[in-house]
């Protein structure tokens, strides 16, 4: 049966109180940390989705976003490296469209149906910017979701059918060189764009299967903003109890990943036999009929634990600095030169895949891998092992207060579970929180260079 084999998600630790934007606002929005972007969040969601699945079983990876760091370079290949997937897989970016997440899901589904792949990983993430104080800034949030589509005897959910329409409308857009998303007048966008398009695609799918709104256990729709939830329920004739929580008061609209984030939440709360009506929006819409199977949920996978863990930021200025809308004082900062691209290429297995060397003679693990074992001195007798999916404990640490960067880096020496010791920067924590023995997990993040996007493995508290 072809369907969803696994799902996962990621919501950043940080939340910006909406009252920091405007005093009359309530709730909070999820915001990426200063060292996060769409690529790093996509990796986090994909790691959560993969769980204990053998990574060599993945035949393709599709990355979906409107905020990729590159205008001309694939990001999916970078994500595949960070996930330590095989080299002989299909990779693709689905970019520039808010329904890119479901476009990726549809491509993955068709690939599996056609037999060109057995398992395809779809990961979507966005870190969009609305102009300061605008409605878009208030409504948007950052986050990611990932799904594995494949053929299995025991899928988590079966994708029974899909229905798509294309629609040309200038409701939301961003041109080359623009930092902020543009949006036409809200009422027109919602009434002439969103409501009509979603009603058309949902009606088309229900008519195809002779189904009515009451036949679905839950509906999972993309929502442009909080008030559109009730509007679309009235247009289609849905009971509000059928509708998946929009997460607007906790996270916000996460762009390309938003529909998939809500689908992951719905699957977490589902039970065998539930029928889900799932629809996206953006220059058209994709709708899917999904039936949940009898399955055991994987502990730790999904959205709930990321929704529960959070740190509130009440400082709007700090948020603007993190998003590089306001400049950083660099009077004390050392200049970080352009990275050597040849050196990055040579160290790909170390930097992105986080491979360490394990001595065949005595089992000692060294990172980075060395030719000679530090314990038994055996030469050139190593197996490569991945450390990025391991946990660890802080052995010792220090803070560099002279960097002049957005946040002073906390440099740690980490004892890795199963062997090995790694120098890593600690993120998502302050100097007051770090201690010897702190349990940490590896996380893929941006480095401190600004000339080119640079990524490294850091650690964060568990």
What does this entry look like structurally?
By secondary structure, the chain is of the alpha+beta class. It folds into two domains: 2-322, Peroxisomal Thiolase, Chain A, domain 1, CATH 3.40.47; 341-461, Beta Barrel (OB fold (Dihydrolipoamide Acetyltransferase, E2P)), CATH 2.40.50. It has helices spanning 38-50, 76-82, 100-114, 135-139, 186-208, 228-236, 258-268, 304-308, 316-322, 341-346, 348-351, and strands at residues 2-10, 14-17, 28-31, 60-65, 90-95, 119-126, 143-151, 157-166, 172-173, 182-183, 218-221, 275-279, 284-292, 311-313, 355-359, 365-366, 382-386, 391-399, 410-416, 421-426, 439-446, 455-461. A nine-stranded mixed beta sheet has the order 5-4-6-7-1-8-13-12-11, sandwiched between helices. The protein has a five-stranded antiparallel beta sheet with strand order 20-19-18-21-22. Strand 4, helix 2 (76-82) and strand 5 form a beta-alpha-beta unit. Helix 5 runs parallel beside helix 6. The longest helix is centred in the middle third of the chain and has 23 residues, at 186-208. The chain is globular and about 70 Å long.
Tell me the CATH architecture of the largest domain. Answer: 3-Layer(aba) Sandwich
CATH class of the largest domain: Alpha Beta
Number of domains: 2
**CATH H-level superfamily title of the largest domain:** Thiolase/Chalcone synthase
Approximate shape: globular
Number of strands: 22
The amount of beta strand, in percent, is 25-35%
* Neighbour order of strands in the largest sheet: 5-4-6-7-1-8-13-12-11
Structural category is alpha+beta
Poorly predicted spans: none
Q: State the end-to-end distance.
A: 36 Å
Q: CATH topology of the largest domain, which one?
A: Peroxisomal Thiolase, Chain A, domain 1
Largest sheet: 9 strands, mixed
Question: What would the average pLDDT be, to the nearest integer?
Answer: 93
Radius of gyration, in Å, reads 23 Å
């Amino acid at each position: 049966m072809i369907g969803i084999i696994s799902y996962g998600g990621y919501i950043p630790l940080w939340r910006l109180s909406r009252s920091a934007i405007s005093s009359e606002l309530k709730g909070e929005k999820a915001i990426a940390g200063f060292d996060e972007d769409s690529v790093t969040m996509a990796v986090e969601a994909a790691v959560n989705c993969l769980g204990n699945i053998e990574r060599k079983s993945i035949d393709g990876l599709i990355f979906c976003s409107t905020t990729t760091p590159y205008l001309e370079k694939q990001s999916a290949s970078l994500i595949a490296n960070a996930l330590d997937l095989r080299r002989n897989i299909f990779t693709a970016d689905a970019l520039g469209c808010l329904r890119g997440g479901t476009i990726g899901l549809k491509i993955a589904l068709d690939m599996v149906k056609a037999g060109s792949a057995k398992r395809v990983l779809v990961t979507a993430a966005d870190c969009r910017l609305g102009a300061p104080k605008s409605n878009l800034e208030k409504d948007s949030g950052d986050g990611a979701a990932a799904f594995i589509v494949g053929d299995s005897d025991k899928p988590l959910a079966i994708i029974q059918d899909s229905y798509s329409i294309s629609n040309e409308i200038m409701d939301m857009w961003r041109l080359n060189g623009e930092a902020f998303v543009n949006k036409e007048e809200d009422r027109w966008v919602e009434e002439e764009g969103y409501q009509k398009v979603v009603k058309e695609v949902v009606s088309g799918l229900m008519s195809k299967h002779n189904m009515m709104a009451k036949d679905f256990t839950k509906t999972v729709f993309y929502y442009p903003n909080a008030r559109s939830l009730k509007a679309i329920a009235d247009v289609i004739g849905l009971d509000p109890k059928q509708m998946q929580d929009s997460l607007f008061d906790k996270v916000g609209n996460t762009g390309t990943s938003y529909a998939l984030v809500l689908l992951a939440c719905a699957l977490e709360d589902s039970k065998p036999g539930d029928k889900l009506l799932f629809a996206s929006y953006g220059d058209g819409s994709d709708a899917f009929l999904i039936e949940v199977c009898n399955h055991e949920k994987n502990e730790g996978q999904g959205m709930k634990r990321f929704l529960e863990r959070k740190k509130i930021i009440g400082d709007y200025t700090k948020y603007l600095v993190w998003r590089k809308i306001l400049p950083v004082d660099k009077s004390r900062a050392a200049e970080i030169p352009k990275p050597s691209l040849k050196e990055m290429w040579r160290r790909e297995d170390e930097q992105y895949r986080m491979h360490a060397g394990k001595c065949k003679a005595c089992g000692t693990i060294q990172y980075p891998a060395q030719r000679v074992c530090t314990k038994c001195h055996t030469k050139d007798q190593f197996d490569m092992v991945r450390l990025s999916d391991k946990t660890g404990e802080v052995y010792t640490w220090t803070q560099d207060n002279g960097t002049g960067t957005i946040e002073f880096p906390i440099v740690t020496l980490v004892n890795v579970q199963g062997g090995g010791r790694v120098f890593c920067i600690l993120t998502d924590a302050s100097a007051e929180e770090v201690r010897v023995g702190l349990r940490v997990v590896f996380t893929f993040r941006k480095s401190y260079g600004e000339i080119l996007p640079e990524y490294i493995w850091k650690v964060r508290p568990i």
